[in-house]
Each structure stands twice: as C-alpha cells, then as structure tokens.
Amino acid sequence: MKAMQDVCADLATEGTELARLVADLPPGQWAAPTAAAGWTVRHQVAHLALVSHLVDLGVRDPAGFEAETAPVRADFEAGMAAGLAEGLAEPVPELLRRWAAERAAAEQALAGVPRREPVPWLAGPLPASVLAAVALMEVFAHGQDIHEALGVPYVFTDRIGHIAFLGTRTRDLAYLARGLEPPAEPFRFELTGPSGVSWAFGPEGAEQRIHGPAADFCLLVTRRRHRDDLALTAVGTAADQWLDIAQTYLGPPGAGRGRIGQYHV
C-alpha cells in the first residue's frame, strides 16, 4: 500500500472534494434525508466534523481524548449522539467552518506522526497510518450518503485502496459486533482498483478467498450496498458468510442496506 504521507494526502483530497460538494447548498438540501434513517445531509457533515475533532485530539492530547470519549466507550450510540448534537445546533456556515478547521487539524496531526506510532482510538490504540485510513473511510462512507442524497455520482479513484486495506485488516470486526467468534483460518483478498491496479491481501494459499472490484468491496465493508448489488465473489463457506456481515467501522451493525431502492438503517 501507499506510504503514510500518501494516506494523509488522499484523506485531504477526499475531504476537500466532499467539502466543495456541500459548500453552496441551498438550505433545503441541507435537510435532504440520507439513506441512514433519521440523518440528513447536515447530520452527515456534523458527524464528519466530530470524527476529525476526535482524530486530532487523539494525536495531540491522548489524555483529553480518553476523557472526552469516555461516554462513547460506555454507550457507543448515546455517546456519539451527544457529540453530534453540538454540530447540529450550529448554523450551517459555522458548521462548515468548524468542519474545515477540524479536518485540517486532523490531517496535519496525522501527517506529523510516524506511521507505526500508536494513537488512541475508540476501540484501542491504532498505528497512525491505520487511523488515517479510518478517517478516510469515514469521509468515503458518509460521503456516499451525501452524494446519494444530492443525486451526484461519486467518482471512484485509487484513493479507495486505503479503505480496501482497512476492510481486510478489520475482518474480525464483523464477527465481534455480532458476538460471534471469528474464524481462525485466514482470508485472501484479491481486488482490482479503479485504475485497473491489482491489490492482494492475505496469504496466497488461503482457502477462503474474496475477489472483485475494490470499489464494490469498499461499498460492502462500509455497509453502503447490499452484497447482491456488488460484483464480489467468495470461495469457501466462511468467506461467503463474511460477505453478508462485513463492516469496517465500530458500533452496532444495524440491518445494513437492502438491495438498490430498499435502504435500511
């Protein structure tokens, strides 16, 4: 995969492009509902501002991060909702300004940390490069919701390679979120990036295998598409079952997306 600076550069580019999309929205579009039940475009942006703030805080002030995120670790959904409320209470221009400032601070903080240095995060410390991929995944996932709500197609680039990597690294989250035991046997992932580049993760001789377009894989692991709408193929029972439950983010899995036109929480 790409070097740490490239992760940060890709994170900055994705954030900038999404910010441009929402910069001049009329008031009615800020209230446009997204596929996440009860969330509007404004909710999505407020959530991204919160994530950027927490990333920056984790790098800059680990003790402050632990104190501020204690409610989230105690009750994930309630804690995140409380953090979201502050952004929702702001006028849109102020929310946009704060998101831009928090985004820039997080990007700068991550770029200044050695890639393997652990940084506090909600499920425990992560290497800085992995946390950068987590932040990129958040922008991608919630950006999908915003693009869909506004009817603007998202253009996939090889920047999603970091999200594909994260999806393979966090394979076991899908099981743990459901109280299941992860399988002991490894998976092999063989994915094709938007430019045609090939990415492979996991032992070459693994019997459990998943392959297909990296764009589809990223939509799957962020639970933005149902597997039946994606061109992903599994070999092996465990790999096939994983495609039904895959997720690369913390928190309850929810029902996931139905097939196209049948969105669920």
Describe this structure in words.
The chain folds into two domains: 4-134, Up-down Bundle (Four Helix Bundle (Hemerythrin (Met), subunit A)); 161-245, Nonspecific Lipid-transfer Protein, Chain A. The chain contains twelve helices and six strands. It is 54% helix and 9% strand. The longest helix has 23 residues, at 128-150. Helix 1 runs antiparallel to helix 7. The strands form two sheets. Strands 4-3-5-6 form a four-stranded mixed β-sheet. It has a two-stranded antiparallel ribbon with strand order 1-2.
Short summary of the structure?
The protein has 12 helices and 6 strands. By secondary structure, it is an alpha+beta fold.
Percentage of residues in helical conformation: 40-55%
Which topology of the largest domain does CATH recognise?
Four Helix Bundle (Hemerythrin (Met), subunit A)
CATH superfamily of the largest domain: dinb family like domain
Number of domain units: 2
Unreliable stretches, pLDDT < 50, 5 or more residues? Answer: 261-265
Calculate Rg over CA atoms: 18 Å
Query: First CA to last CA: what distance?
Result: 32 Å
Compute the average pLDDT: 92
Strand content: 5-15%
Q: What strand line-up does the widest sheet have?
A: 4-3-5-6
Q: What is the string of SSEs from the N terminus onward?
A: HHHHHHHEEHHHEEEHEH
Based on the model shown, name its key terms.
about 260 residues, alpha+beta, Four Helix Bundle (Hemerythrin (Met), subunit A), Nonspecific Lipid-transfer Protein, Chain A, 2 domains, 4-stranded mixed sheet, two-stranded antiparallel ribbon, 12 helices, 6 strands, about 55% helix, disordered C terminus
